[in-house]
Amino acid sequence: MRAGALGFVAGLAALLAAPATAQLSDAEEVMVESVESGFERDVALLEQITLINSGSHNHAGVKAVADVLAPQFAALGFEVEWIDQSANGRAGHLFARHEGAPGTTKMLLIGHLDTVFEPDSPFTGFVRDGDSATGPGVVDDKGGIVVILAALRAMKEAGTLEGANILVALTGDEEDAGEPLEAARRDLVEAGKWADVALGYEGLSQLDGKDAGVIARRSSGSWTLTTSARSGHSSGIFSEHAGYGAIYEMARILDAFRRELPEENLTYNVGFMAGGTPAELGEDGLSATTGGKTNIIPSHAVARGDLRALTPVQNEATTERMRAIVARHLPGTEATIAIEFRYPPMAPTAGNAVLLDRLNAINADLGREAMQPYPPSRRGAADISFVAPHVDGLAGMGPAGSGSHAEGETIDLRSIVRQAQRSAILMSRLAQDASAK
């Protein structure tokens, strides 16, 4: 846990020691009712923004979603800012700031405007069936944005928003971040340095059908492996003068990864590969071409894959081990590997765990079951990971659903209610604490 959060976490721990018989305050009862009564309004907003295509590369669509949301935040007393990202190849980010009582908890709420579904996707529309709805991005992450607004409206009605210091950061390129990455995430990282607490509003995780808490998410990186060798007649394969060829060297390395790297919370998928004479990686980095003959020793091979780890230390250690494996060349071959981490991990911290305990105290007051920590190996990377080195947080604060990133993505609409209720009460209680920064 970072040193700057020690006082803040100690304060949270003290509050957790309160009597187990604690109940909702009058203001919290108002928030619970406010979220419930606003359910149909929130579903209508979800439908409105779902019907606007906002694929990461549809800049006009991303901005159109922001234009719908900006007045919603402004009506709650937030100062709204559009941060143009055209220089980084993306539309932009919508930030909304609310200044509350000086010296109290600074809260960063993170969501995103874009989806994986570009304008040419056949998956369109918004189809409601009772308490579920299907549409592109209904869970990831337009439903998360609706949860944020529902919680803030409830706080406003209960009178707890006035004293709260909150920054809402809705990025426009979470599904495909702009370049250079440092510039595309600069504003978010600065917000993380400002905040005491970060709450990520991507989808709610569930274990055996029960809501779970997310205190850790793994990194997301990629690797590119290339091998080369002397080519020649296949009758000479394995000989001292001809060597083993590029494909055997590739197979050696990938099999060594499989055998030597396994450890908890680490995965390293091979996405695609090609080998022959020659074999070349496509300009898009997502394809490869090759040719050759059965009687020719292959001269080149290429492969790409991803790498996901739980902590920066695990990232670094795995990278070193992969490079060491690559360096053990078969006779007559060469190999190189390039590794890039796009999204850092949200490592589990004591502060994150305390925040989940704080949320579970609210669950108890609401008469709900405690939320168990969700296995980080089952969650992908998200924007909250960029601020994780600077601030403790909780992810998975958005709605429940299924099929994210695929046709048929579906949201459990009633999960908007329970997540917004939890959020409103959590933020209201945090707003009464002293800031650690």
Topology:
Layout: H1 6-16, H2 26-37, H3 39-50, H4 59-74, E1 79-84, E2 92-98, E3 106-112, E4 127-129, E5 132-134, H5 142-158, E6 165-171, H6 181-184, H7 186-194, E7 197-200, E8 205-207, E9 210-213, E10 220-229, H8 245-260, E11 270-276, E12 279-281, E13 288-290, E14 300-307, H9 312-326, E15 333-343, H10 350-365, E16 372-373, H11 384-387, E17 392-394, E18 401-402, E19 410-412, H12 414-430
Parallel strand pairs: 3-6, 3-7, 7-17, 9-16
Antiparallel strand pairs: 1-2, 2-6, 4-5, 5-19, 8-9, 10-14, 10-15, 11-14, 12-13, 18-19
Helix pairs in contact: 1-10, 2-5, 2-12, 3-5, 5-12
Please tell me about this protein's structure.
By secondary structure, the protein is of the alpha+beta class. It has two domains: 3-217 and 346-430, Aminopeptidase; 220-343, Alpha-Beta Plaits (2-Layer Sandwich). The protein is 34% helix and 22% strand. It contains twelve helices and 19 strands. It has helices at 6-16, 26-37, 39-50, 59-74, 142-158, 181-184, 186-194, 245-260, 312-326, 350-365, 384-387, 414-430; strands at 79-84, 92-98, 106-112, 127-129, 132-134, 165-171, 197-200, 205-207, 210-213, 220-229, 270-276, 279-281, 288-290, 300-307, 333-343, 372-373, 392-394, 401-402, 410-412. A six-stranded mixed beta sheet has the order 1-2-6-3-7-17, with helices on both faces. A four-stranded antiparallel beta sheet has the order 4-5-19-18. Helix 2 crosses helix 5. The protein is elongated. Residues 13-21 have low confidence and may be disordered.
